[in-house]
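Structural prep section.
Before we set up the soaks we want a predicted structure of the protein with 2-acetamido-2-deoxy-beta-D-glucopyranose in place, mainly to decide which crystallisation condition to try first. Input record follows.
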Amino acid sequence: MWKALFLLVLLALSPGADGLFRSLYRKAHVSRPRKGDPGQRLFLTPYIESGKLTKGRQLSLVPPFPGWNLTSYSGYITVNKTYNSNIFFWFFPAKIEPENAPVVLWLQGGPGGSSMFGLFVEHGPYIVSKNMTLFARDFPWTTTFSMLYVDNPVGTGFSFTDHVHGYAIDEDDVAQNLYSALIQFFELFSDYRDNDFYVTGESYAGKYVPAIAHYIHTLNPVTTMKINLKGIALGDAYSDPKSIIEGYPSFLFQIGLLDEQEKKYFQKQCNDCVKFIHQEKWLQAFELLDRLLDGGLISEPSYFQNVTGCSNYYNLLLCTEPEDQSYFGKFLSLPHVRQAIHVGNQTFSDGARVEKYLREDTVKSVKPWLTEIMNNYKVLIYNGQLDVIVAASLTERSLMAMDWKGSQKYKKAEKKVWKILKSDLEVAGYVRQVDNFCQVIVRGGGHILPYDQPLRSFDMINRFIFGRGWDPY
Ligand SMILES: *[C@@H]1O[C@H](CO)[C@@H](O)[C@H](O)[C@H]1NC(C)=O
Ligand SMILES: *[C@@H]1O[C@H](CO)[C@@H](O)[C@H](O)[C@H]1NC(C)=O
Ligand SMILES: *[C@@H]1O[C@H](CO)[C@@H](O)[C@H](O)[C@H]1NC(C)=O
Ligand SMILES: *[C@@H]1O[C@H](CO)[C@@H](O)[C@H](O)[C@H]1NC(C)=O
Ligand SMILES: *[C@@H]1O[C@H](CO)[C@@H](O)[C@H](O)[C@H]1NC(C)=O
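Run finished without errors. Recording the tokens verbatim:
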């Protein structure tokens, strides 16, 4: 009797079906505002188009939260008028020297993960506690960079579209909408236009980041309005699915998550998946992978969940996701918060529809675009050493399969031990550098790296962007 009751309570508390790189973003699901006045959505495109830039900027200013004195701006930029597609952004000018600080765009993965996750859980200035108070993060990236958090693609988080055809079905759609948002953003905030610009993101953003960077790279020479792109940073990146999928069976076996028999099954499934990819049978490849790993669009647990008993593949040491990673969802449903950030009663989407429309894209590679970016810009590719879903060794497989101008040097490059301070006994991670390219493995953290390792992540991104090298201080 007690056992049954206990189980019932547990069932009632457990989350629903999870999505590939989105499982935890989905738990942050906030459909509607709570009681109270959430204000109105702020659409900035009319101000940009009519040249009322000062007015637009003023309106987008986010009034400080109680006890805070921090300047930020947020609102909507219309990226496709036919479908009424709108992108939500939240911009934090750097604390130190905002007039010179690089502007860093952050894109969450998923597909369908809101960048509000990155802001509140990974590296924004605020941490939401269980009782909805805001705490200051110790090493926010907003200290040295002007951080631009964007809900991408439309249909993710607070971003929305009014039409089914407004959803992205491939990375071209993603890049086109994002580019429109960036061009308008830099018109509105023209003081930041000449600062260095970096595109960063993790997981499925391993596809978005090369897509938008390549789009900028292609358009810059032929447009008057240029974006000052200097480089990109990719964390635990899902850029080249094939090379990652091929590596799963032996990796999962080596870390003890699969036994011999399960490995054989996994191997067979992965072989079939890769076969579908070669045949460009994208949907079949997606469906197979979904059943095997993710269970995002099937109504039963995936094979991975069944054999490991765990729903979390973001950190080798954790079977479930830390509870505090979902507090921000409730925070974003509070009327006074919604009023402050100009989202009104807009539904906060869990990304399931975005994922549905990107199903075929899920198994396609952005390798050619990434190659061109590596040939022309600064690139950082990093992994949390404890990540499972895009493990360090799987990223290494992807890199070894790439042919770019530094490939030969990269294959021979010596790995360096990276410590933050000379006096540190602890090692922060490992680095291989070839010219403008850095590969970093950060110790002691998983997929959600800045959450697990705030200081190491902060040091890493600063060393990369400011070109400080990897010697201890
Ligand atoms: C808030 O910060 C601004 C500039 O950073 C400063 O001018 C202002 O006095 C501060 N206000 C309070 C109440 O601390
Ligand atoms: C809106 O999106 C559609 C589909 O991607 C595209 O064909 C069209 O050119 C877009 N319109 C604008 C104004 O960007
Ligand atoms: C909220 O929780 C924090 C600890 O997480 C505590 O310090 C604070 O006093 C609490 N605030 C309220 C209003 O309960
Ligand atoms: C996982 O286990 C459940 C319960 O036994 C089963 O219904 C489901 O088919 C399994 N999933 C896969 C992908 O094999
Ligand atoms: C939001 O509010 C407007 C009126 O301000 C209303 O027409 C609309 O239905 C509301 N939308 C949602 C999702 O509640």
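Observations: The pocket of 2-acetamido-2-deoxy-beta-D-glucopyranose (ligand 2) is lined by residues 80-83, 173 (CB under 6 Å).
Flagged for discussion at group meeting.
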